[in-house]
Design goal:
The chain has 24 helices and 23 strands. The chain is α+β, with helices and mostly antiparallel strands. The chain folds into three domains: 2-52 and 280-458 and 691-820, no CATH class; 60-277, no CATH class; 469-680, no CATH class. Strands 1, 2, 3, 4, 5, 6, 7, 8, 9, 10 and 11 form an eleven-stranded mixed β-sheet that branches. Strand 19 and strand 20 form a beta hairpin. It starts with a helix and ends with a helix. 44% of the residues are buried. Mean pLDDT is 84; it is low at 407-422.
Length: 821
Amino acid sequence: MEMMGSSLLQDLRFALRLFNRNKSFTGIAVLTLALGIGANTAIFSIVNSILLKPLPYEKPMELVMLWSDLQKMGAPRAPASPALLKEIRERSQTLQGVAGIRVGNNTFVGEPEPEQVKVGFVTANFFSVLAVKPALGRLFQPEDEQLQPGGTRAIVLSHGIWQRRFGGDPNIIGRAVRLGANSSFTVAGVLPADFRLVFPPDSDIPLEAQAYTAYPKAIYNDKNSQYLRLIGRIKPGVTIEQVKKDASAIAEQFSNQYPEYKAENLQLRVIGLHADVVRDINLALLALLFGAGLVLLISCFNVANLLLTRATVRRKEIAVRAALGASRWRMTQQLLSESLLLCFLAAVLGLGVGWAGLKLLLSIRPESLARVGTIGLDLTTLVFVSAISLGAGLLAGLAPVLETGKVNLVESLKQEGRTLASRGGNRIRLFLTVSEIALGFVLLVGAGLMIRTLIQLQRTSPGFDPNQVLTFEMSIPFGPNSYRTPQDLMAFLTQFEAKISALPGVQAVGAVSHLPLDDYPNWYDAYAPEGKIVEETSKLLADHRATMPGYFQAMGARLLGGRYFNNMDLVAGSANIVIVDDVVARQNWPHETAVGKKINIQPFSGPRTWFEIVGVVENLKSHGLFASLRGQIYIPYQQSIREHLSYAVRASGDPMALAAAIRRELNSLNKNMAIAKIRPLQQYVDKAMAPTKFTATLAGIFALLALLLAAVGIYGVVSYSVSQRTQEIGVRMALGARPTDILKLVMKEGLILTAFGLPIGFIASLALSRYLQTMLFGVTSLDPMTYIVIAIVIPMTTLFACWRPAQKAAAGSAMDALRQS
């Protein structure tokens, strides 16, 4: 063992001297591997933080999401009613706790100034299910669900707002604060600084709420309103499959108790919280990690080619070692130690490349990647980098080891210093280059499909014009201590809009309860068109939106028929009217106009009744740019008053320049109200497009790296081939071959390699691209244009890579070629 360690140190010292004498070779090999290792380091850091690390809760693998699956309504991931939550708590044999949450908006009033915040409305056991401990004071207790006459409700503050609004006051516990115009709360506790709400993106739960209040116990009698997102903790020793069986039995019992749920064929979906959170991003991340792996493989093939060339040049040295008694294992150890040292140097540089790449990725990452974990280089990433570097060293060193195993002692010593190219070495070299071309083809196809998807998304209309539109939101204070009647509230809103409209540069202004592509909790319900029995149309679902006049004009939405809302529609006692989008219109009246037809709906603040359709607008993509999840029904705001409004203000210039003036106008009308999320409408579109842009950008970078490395590999093989065929080229020139003939000869060799690599890459792409289909939009995984372009790009790259060695061969003379042979 001691002798082996001594020989290894000797081999490493020899390798260092060898690399020092051949700085250009060392630099190219190290940089090539470092690019592959760096790409994998950056991507694995993200994959590790999001897919592999546990969520930031105690025993996170015990946490599950519970969704209402209303099968007949076609709503597989619906929130739950409080009554269903109560049923699960009482009957479950597998869950040690189940809690509910909904997040809405409200406003802190008083000094220093009103501030709109996100408020988490939770059941009293919410934080205990998550096993969260307070940073200050206490969290909710069961008694917080009991509302005492004349008493104040408890509130829990986030660490951020405690520091920002309340100056980190250590005596905040027990202090009274006002949240909204009608409510006074007593601060019970402050959450830890690192607490976050890590829920699936489609749950409409943001990463942070600034305050939390407990629902009163009375809500558990409500079986009709479905608004709670349920999270549960599994009992120790219980599997998720057992929880699913338990949940199915509970859903059946609940359905038997309430016929309306029986009619909807209620089921309960149970999904591990972590699996649910990463559900929409795991495929993209794994695809990117696979792409980074292909880049590293191409880098290994490239370095293997370089080492193989050097091994061919060193055949006489190896033969002399063998003649002096060196065993095959001893020579293999020498070559592998050189390869591993090369990869060690590449790993060190690759960590730097990976760190820089990670910083770049974090600067362009979409919000879906910010939802889980803190991304960075950690011990797990370092172990991964060490493992892939070791693997790369062994893989790159395998080719020269195989080549030296075929050394013929007598023939090598006869060469008197000249190189001797073996057929086996040439075959390995050609195999490596063809593999690079094939792998490059696969990466280019993936990148091409994602880029085509991004182009299609950019060309697709979201149903509105986001340019030069300012948006903001505010909570509506409707109650005894603010606007007591709908008429008072509508008068305020009408006056507020009039003041905004009077500002210089404002072209249109309007408001809606749910802005497209926003994360405010969605509200949708079943509707029935006239001529159909209401009870038989539960599968007809649409988003319900409360709207002020001017909203569609401000959004730049296209009116397809009928009319927009106007101020007369806000008058008390006005007719029940709605505007629907073209999805609802086509679904129910495909060959006739929807204007004048009636539908049966239930407004947010009123009983189910019939409404007349007065207009049809183009579908505004509200849940994402890829497709319309549901149609939309728009109701005049005074007929469906909501606690939240989002405004759209179309401007003739920079929309953000209006923000300060709008704040002043609101303050002049109501000093206890605040606006939040002031941003251009374009930001919502950019946010929706960010995941596809992120994936397409990385796929494009990997594809360019693969193309560059493949070009370097082709250049190396063709250059080596030209050097080995010097005598042949001299003879051809002596027999009358023109420079153009030599040029074509060398170019042909590169194109032959491409001709072998393209079909292999094509077949591999066909097999793998179908896994990308769910990430594509407006293009199929077999998109002909993508394949045709790549089938042109790779041969063009080959010609470019072959040009220099071909030109060098063609520029020589016959005498020089024969003299060098």
